[in-house]
Amino acid sequence: MSDDPQPTAVELKRLLEACRSAFQMCAHPSVKVAAAVSDSEGAIHNGVQVRSTNCSHCATCAEPVALGAALAVGATTFTACVAMVRDNTGIHVWSPCGTCRELLRDFGVRTVVVAQTPDGHPITATPDELLPWP
Ligand SMILES: [Zn+2]
Question: Distance between CA 86 and CA 78 in Å, rounded?
Answer without folding.
Answer: 25
